[in-house]
From TrEMBL:
Protein name: L,D-transpeptidase
Domain of life: Bacteria
Keyword Nuclease attached: no
Family statement drawn from the similarity comment of this UniProt entry: Belongs to the YkuD family.
Catalytic residues in the record: H111, C127
Length: 167
C-alpha cells in the first residue's frame, strides 16, 4: 500500500521545468539580432547588456521564444572532434543550449568563442557567440528552464521585457 501511495504522489506531482519559469522574477534573456546584443533580465530589471555575434545571415539564428535546456562547462565540439578547453574549440568556455526549431539544446546555443574579434558581427552558423568572460557570468546565473527571446524588434530591451512580463 505504501508503495502505491508513493507511486501516485510521484505520478501526480509536477516536475519542474514544465511550462513557464515558476518564479515571478525569473531570469530572462533577450537577443536583438539587428544590434548583436543580449540583455540579461533578472529581478524584473535589466542587469547587463552584452555584445554578441549572431548568424552570418538573418535566417541562421532562429527568431522566437525558446527555453534553455542544456548547460555545459568546457563543451566538446562534435563537428570537428575538438575537446573542451582546447584553444581551437570555437565554443569557448561555456555552452548554454536552447530548444530552437524543435532541437534538444545541442544545436543552437549561447556560447563563448575562441575568436573574440567576431563579437558584434554577423558571422555564426546560427548560435549566439559571447566573450568567454561574459558567457561565464550568464552561465552561473541562469538555470535550465530560463526563457530566451531572439528578435528583430526595433524596440528597446525594457519595452520588449515588459511585453514578455519579465519586467
Amino acid at each position: 500500500m505504501k508503495f502505491i501511495s508513493i507511486m501516485i504522489v510521484l505520478f501526480l506531482s509536477p516536475l519542474w521545468p514544465l511550462g513557464e519559469n515558476p518564479a515571478p522574477n525569473a531570469p530572462f534573456l533577450i537577443v536583438k539580432k539587428q544590434t548583436n546584443q543580449i540583455a540579461y533580465v533578472d529581478d524584473r530589471e535589466i542587469q547587463n547588456v552584452y555584445r554578441v555575434a549572431t548568424g552570418a545571415t538573418n535566417e541562421l539564428t532562429p527568431n522566437g521564444l525558446h527555453t534553455i535546456t542544456v548547460k555545459a562547462k568546457e563543451p566538446y565540439y562534435r563537428k570537428k572532434n575538438i575537446p573542451g578547453g582546447s584553444p581551437d574549440n570555437p565554443l569557448g568556455s561555456r555552452w548554454i543550449g536552447f530548444d530552437a526549431e524543435d532541437t534538444d539544446g545541442r544545436i543552437y546555443g549561447v556560447h563563448g568563442t575562441n575568436k573574440p574579434e567576431s563579437i558584434g558581427a554577423n558571422v555564426s552558423a546560427g548560435c549566439i557567440r559571447m566573450m568567454n568572460e561574459n558567457v561565464e557570468v550568464l552561465f552561473d546565473r541562469i538555470p535550465i528552464g530560463t526563457k530566451i527571446l531572439i528578435t528583430e524588434s526595433e524596440e528597446d530591451f525594457t519595452t520588449i521585457a515588459k511585453q514578455y512580463n519579465a519586467m
